[in-house]
Design brief:
Blueprint: H1 12-16, H2 32-42, E1 54-59, H3 62-84, H4 90-101, E2 110-117, H5 126-143, E3 147-148, H6 153-156, H7 158-165, E4 171-180
Antiparallel strand pairs: 1-2, 2-4, 3-4
Helix pairs in contact: 2-5, 3-7
The protein binds flavin mononucleotide (FMN).
Length: 211
Amino acid sequence: MTGPGPDAGPPFFDVVLTQRACRTFADTPVTDAEIDTVLRAATHAPSAENRQPWEFVVVRDPAVQTALHDIAEAAWAGGGRAFSEGRLPDELLAEVDAGYAGGGYRSAPVLVVVCADVERCLPATVASSIFPCAQNLLLAAHALGLGSALTTLGASAGPEVRAVLGLPEHVWPQVVVPLGRPARALGPPRREPVADHTHRDRYGTAWEGRR
Ligand SMILES: Cc1cc2nc3c(=O)[nH]c(=O)nc-3n(C[C@H](O)[C@H](O)[C@H](O)COP(=O)(O)O)c2cc1C
């Protein structure tokens, strides 16, 4: 075991019910031990055929962070924002804007770029094998008191990200996760009630919660 042990964190449901996307960070550093712990949790995710196709690039180099930030900001300013306007609730749009205004990826002490080695998984299972890993990473980070965000926009410019990170052709960037202490409290997650989206036995029959 490297880094803080599994007993170090709060109860699971306290973690999973309060985790939120964090886009602005305090200067406080993140230790390698903390990164080891979140990556260990990430690698305990399920993956198709247990291929574990993940590859992580842990970025602390400010020049690399800035390059990744510039790619993401260009994607946001050059079409992402226009696409999202009118689709995202105003509050979420404002949160993403504030993240870029606050320095974006440059403001995080560390970035973890989660990639997929496509020689180790079937094409149809790239995303479905990587996203559980990313989710474990977010939850473990939150359990350690670290803010994080699952972002795909910054990874979507694959060739540019590949060039910045020196990724070989068969390693595809999927998610960029900034990690650090949140600059401010994030507030409770905004989620719709379970009963609004749950059906008993057949679609359309109300679940009605616990019996
Ligand atoms: C597939 C996926 C892609 C996402 N991409 C981005 C992104 O590119 N940039 C970003 O700021 N947030 C991104 N998010 C984070 C969502 O905006 C966030 O999870 C959602 O709004 C819920 O907000 P909360 O975590 O604060 O409760 C992404 C989330 C998912 C699941």
